[in-house]
Amino acid sequence: MVLDFYKLTEQPFGVTPDSRFLYLGPKHREALASLVYGTESNRGFLALIAKPGMGKTSLLYHYLSYLRDKARTAFVFRTDCDSREFIRHVLLDLGVDVAGMDLPGMHDTLNRLLTEEMRLGRRFVLVIDEAQNLDEKVLESVRLLSNFETPWMKLMQIVLAGQPQLADHLASPSMAQLRQRVSMVIKLDPFTHDEVNAYIDHRLRVAGCSKPEIFSANARKLIAEHGEGIPRNINNLCFNALSLGCALQKKTIGRDIVLEVIADLDLEPLREQKPVAKKPADISPQPKSVFLSEIKKRSIFSRWIPSVAITSALLIGLSWFAVHAERRSPERVRPSANAAFVPAAPARVLAPVTTQASSSASPTVPDEREAASIQPEPTSEDVRVLPGQTLYQISVNKLGRYDDQVLEKLRGLNPNLKDPDLILSGQKLRIPSVTLPPTDPQRAAEQASNAASAEAGKQ
Hints:
Elements: H1 2-5, H2 26-40, E1 45-50, H3 56-66, E2 71-76, H4 83-93, H5 103-119, E3 123-128, H6 136-145, E4 149-150, E5 153-154, E6 157-162, H7 164-171, H8 176-181, E7 182-188, H9 193-206, H10 217-226, H11 231-247, H12 255-265, H13 290-295, H14 297-333, H15 356-359, H16 368-372, E8 380-384, H17 391-399, H18 404-413, E9 428-432, H19 440-458
Parallel strand pairs: 1-6, 1-7, 2-3, 3-6
Antiparallel strand pairs: 4-5, 8-9
């Protein structure tokens, strides 16, 4: 149905590594040329590394097709195996019956094959796809295969192709011997925007499309950005865009159709959300995809009006309740005129001691007016710790003393003050804004000083 609607002879964005649809852009042509040159130069080990979906397998098939009449080849892609199974896969791809063979026997058989190919004047090339899945022990067995050689040439050329994890394996210290034998490391970088356009046109042309403009310029730009320049992602987006465009009877695929496809391929809403309690400091805003936010604009706009209306009604109701509660609260707590006045317990007032004679007089008892005039708890102020300044210096400068009472007061105002001997330069501390009343030892010292002065005056 899709093929008839867009007048295509076959599916242009399939999932199989069909060499006819291989787009040899600048990066892929360079990688292919490096593979051919490394093989013809008898370099031993070659490594082809690229992100998933970059077309490594398609490029390897094209490379093996080039070597068909020039060398004997073996292609291994089942790499989740041990050393014995790996050699078995190599021999099976070469058409050798390995029934009943042990590992030394398989090595002898492979050695005879390599020697025979050398006598015939042909190279032997072993290509290992998905090599990032090979265990280190298997990679070591692959390294030992390179020991099949003569004094003047290697009997086997080996190509290791895999994802970036392969680079991690080769870079590990335990793989130093294998890494030293890899003479060329070939990389495949993602497509640029221009290469994405050429890639789409190439596959449409191979599929018999006579109108490459089936994808609009805005749609192509969006596919290039969201597909990250990876051919497999581009294929998925284009395939689904053609399917949706056919369902909507759209001859041209526009930006709106691609946005809809991106939303359909998004797996995030389908993931199981597991609630995890986090501290407020640990919660950070998560970046949102510009494409998904654009897709969800209309649905968000259609839901915000009822939410705002309900929220506004609740706020008006709470405001009315708060205003009326504030108006009624003084009437409930205002005492009646006939109610008996019970003064608060008088605070302890210390009369200043000026002379020895006055110290022996009876203490002054404050009356009710003096008790009523007693000020409430002193306010506090913030100070910034200067470089090299200690808590003792700050307390003496601001409060006139430093003792257990002052330290207890400072701890109450600064809950985060765990170690009084450890304060940092620039740290903000909260201290009482007025001097605290003196302690008994301080008061005794002041009285002794005043008495000494009075006695000296009499003489």
